[in-house]
Fold these 4 entries.
Entry 1:
Amino acid sequence: MTQEEIIAQADRYLMRTYGRFPLALVRGEGAYVWDAAGNRYLDFVSGLAVNSLGHCHPQVVEAIRAQAGLLMHCSNLYHIEPQVRLARLLVENSALDRVFFCNSGAEAVEAAIKLARKHAKQRHGPDRFEIITALKSFHGRTLAAVTATGQPRYHQGFEPLPAGFRYVPFNDLEALRAAVGEHTCAVMLEPVQGEGGVNVAHPDYLRGVRRLCDEQGLLLILDEVQAGLGRTGRRFAHEHYGITPDILTLAKALGGGFPIGAALAREEVAAAFSPGDHASTFGGNPLACAAAEAAVGLIFADGFLEQVLRVAGHFRTRLAALQDRFPVVREVRGLGLLIGAELSAGIGKAVLGRCQERGLLINCIGEDILRFIPPLTVTETEVDAAVDILSAALAEEGEE
């Protein structure tokens, strides 16, 4: 089909749950994608941080091909070798002990919520169920995960929402301390709020939250669906802070482009789940786990994360230079290759459109925050090309 035919049939047959750009992407390789009209784009959206190794990384593709010829799916009623290998890889490279596999970040968050509540009821009694989250957070689109999300616009139209969630300002330890009550069982935070505007947790804040949870007998859940697995230049974002969560959620980068999610937990916490308490039909299927084992193995390989940090430093330097040149760039912030540039109010989408016209795909949060989440394999040359396009787009904005 032509690009126009794809777009027309999408408008005819698909539910209107996405505000799509008039592009139909049909092929990808590394940091680039092509649309159905043959136009090439430098992709700094990366499937919203999913394509952690770029598009169609050869080792991930080969792992999928090989496993597809052996066994694509079987029930979790049986032991699954690729699932075991992936679980061991994650546990041996983290400070957590057990893994539950699912299909997405929202499902990983749902597992974390259920596990936290089950653990609290076993340890403290039936009245411990409340989870405190942060304003501007984003935890997923299922009903419990969207309720945990501290952004009212995601709640509208889906009421009544599940009970048991409370919201506090991000990076405000005293507000969190004041919110803890007799029903609180856990605190759930993102080390970097991606959808909330690329807001980075202050080191003293996350360390203080860990101490507070220990003092109050609460579980600390860290949602690293977007920030985990190399995105910040460490295996897990919480490693920047020198803390360990009780429960950790992962997805996006985990499969190198293939859908898979995971919830990890400490042994004592994971023990709250018994057979039948939680499950996922497709979770941890052989095909997804084979893809993820290949992707995670590459991310954890010697030298990979050092390269991510080098390129991220170069990217931040180039963006800082733009901030000096263009007054409309108010702030550049982020961690590793999860970077946001806050612009003057209301111009973000116009700048995004100009970048797209010039062959660069980026993401805009709200009206004024550009989010850059390129593949972790992006090169300095590709970063330079992206910044040059952004510079031209900003210059054009300044001329109006």
Note: Residues 123 and 237 are 29 Å apart (CA to CA).
Entry 2:
Amino acid sequence: MADLKMNIPPEVIIGSVNRLGDEAVFLGNRILLIADSALEGAIDDVRNILESRGLSVLLFSDAVPVSTTFTLNDALSMARGSHANVIIGMGGVKTLQLARATASLAVEKIFVDDYLRGAVRPVKGLPYIELPTSGRNPFMFRSECFLTEHSERYSRICPMPEESLKMIFLDPLFLDSYSDRYLYMAMMDILLHSVEAYLSPRASFFSDVQASRAISEVSSLLGFKGNAHSSPDRFSRIYEASLFSAYGGALNGVGAVTVLSYMLSGYTGKPKGAISTVLLPLLLESSFFPGNDKKLSLAKLCHHEPMPEDFKSLKPEEVMRRFQGLHELPSRFSALGITAQELSEAASLTYSILEAQIPSLTQEALFNILQAGL
């Protein structure tokens, strides 16, 4: 087990977003709100909260699900032209990456292409506040963002200035705007991040505690089919699980298959939650973590309570398949319209950015996981 060295700086607030203005007012008075346009009602609420504190708010709502460096250039033009002194990112995982990159590059006026190639590393960025409306972001406690290039669709993990990431705001009521199907795929996405954190060779006792709690919590939520909007407590539990998952992965680094899910989503334009839903049992069925004894203990974490009798003998990957079937979630890449060629390209691109960080990683191992899901 790896040594433990902790430095997790951003402040985390779990509660009503009504407090956002009280916190943001200490960071600046000209806010650029980068938000997913699908969150129209929530955007109006957040804007009103900020403006009620006398803050000037400019909205960038072109953060579509396939946001790329092309969208980033537009967001940077708005940030620099408006002289914004605070960036707030609001939405799902891809919108948050766009907002993080904007906060990173707005001050030093670094060219996006140079940033994406790793030729420059920003030292000073704008203060950044994050509102992950679906609760998910495996980069939550890491000063990094994941960018997709516009024309060739390759992606890179890029550094953020460490002082830029100021605050994470988690209001469970944001989940009220999402469908049951979206929430179930979001939970499968959280599970993928958590499983990788738990099985990581860089795991510590701290990451094990956090990741195992996330796996147990999400498995319990996924074990029953019902109206996800029936109880605010369910929203809170999803956010808590996401927070545990992000803590668990903060020290280990984001896992290779999680990066693969980002890469495949950016390359194909398909939702990351749907891709992670397909990937999760494939990862567990693979030999990606050879000789890892913790894979055996993973089964107990996946068995939700109260547990049906037939669950007790199931392997973790079989539990994930049950979740897919119970909630009618995608189980094959072909059902998402993803081709073998796209899978091959995604594996190659993922390997190219991780080979230096994970010497034991092979492109073949990544592709084998993907190929099993065609």
Note: The radius of gyration is 20 Å.
Entry 3:
Amino acid sequence: MSDDKLFGQEPDQKRGIVLIGMPGSGKSTVGVLLAKALSRPFIDTDLIIQAVQGMRLQDLINSKGLDAFLAIEETCIAGIQVGEAVVSTGGSVPLRERSMHFLKNEGIAVHLELPLDELRRRITNMDSRGIALAPGQSFDELYDERMPLYKKYADITVNCAGLDHEGGVAAVQAALSAYSLR
């Protein structure tokens, strides 16, 4: 028996797992827990951007503007080595087609989906969180803009409504198992 079968992974499953979704959907927290559960590395693209730019996301958006931020994000995404990692992306990643094509080539895109009212309850720091909003854009408008993009790029959509982070991890693992059986 090969090592791959011993650990419950077929060789074709050794791709990255890319979490996409709205700010507040749990990508970072679920991502860390999922990476631990699957014994995989974890990458948070927002943290990479902050490290490369030497500033918080919100400060970057405020000082350079949305378009410049999205260009920086796209460049950082193109430079990551996904391998078998679980990747937590910023909510704005699907706004750049090149970023999503790169990520989907490297892994399975998993959309963590939550209803708008639950996202609003989770996000308490809208002004400092680093959400890539266009000037004058509301969170509701952002949701309406991005949801079709998440659906377009997702290989798997996991409804996380009412789930805590551990429940989200379990739901993602179940969805990945079902996806690999197709």
Note: The first strand starts at residue 16 and ends at 20.
Entry 4:
Amino acid sequence: MKPIHIAFILLIDLLWAGNIIAIKESVLAMPPLLAVALRYAVLLLACASAIRLVPGRMRLVLATGILTGAIQFGLGAYSYHVATNLSALAIAGQLGVPFSLLLAILIDGERIAWRRTIGIVLAFAGVLLLVFDPRIADERLALLLTAAAALCWAAGNLMFRRLSGISVLNLYGWQALISLPVLLLASAIAEPGGIAALGTVPISAFGWIVYSAIAASLVGHAGMSWLLQKYPVTLLTPLTLPTPLLAVIFVTVVYGTPITPLMVAGGLLTLAGVAIITLRTAQKSVENRAHEPG
């Protein structure tokens, strides 16, 4: 792997980890649904020229956009809004990986062996430890919302697999186009006065929203898609595993949130489970391709 590409994927890790600060700062300055709506306004402007109709698959494109856009990020933003210890959310957010595997088993009939089964158990056991940590008992609603957002992400992953061949920018464009009006309407109903008060929001909050839309979403996810065209998934996947660790470091430094023994134990269990699932799934993907005819 070229050193420039290794540096790029490590940059993506940093961008994704930094997004936890971007989201928190934006929802501190304005209502969460409005913050997500503005994020998608930026994303729509960036992707508007790439939007194209996808004949025969528009229903799936729109359903995927609303699930992975307005619903997933709405839940996620509200979890950040009610949370004070973001380290716990960075750990719970990793449940998207075991959720993805469980949905693949239930919907696609994927079969797994003992290694990935252990990975699922470890990932959920780690987050369960967080729930019983008395020092972060007030984060239980935020943890539940984060888990729900992770489930939406996992379901969206299965839907994205059925949209192969469509450019990332086109999918993001549709995601923004369908999510923006939904979020604005939801904000107007659930967050009265939020839109009218935008003039009082600090400029820095809008900067964090731009960061979340452009750096974390476009550069991060589009960049990862580009790298996957050049290198096998088994090579790239391990290089993304530092992201949650970096996120915990960032929030600890920026907000000074406590790291409890139970949080460390839960985080290690969850990350171990996610690593097992991720690495084994990547290996199985390569093995299956090797056995395809042709």
Note: The chain has one domain: 3-290.
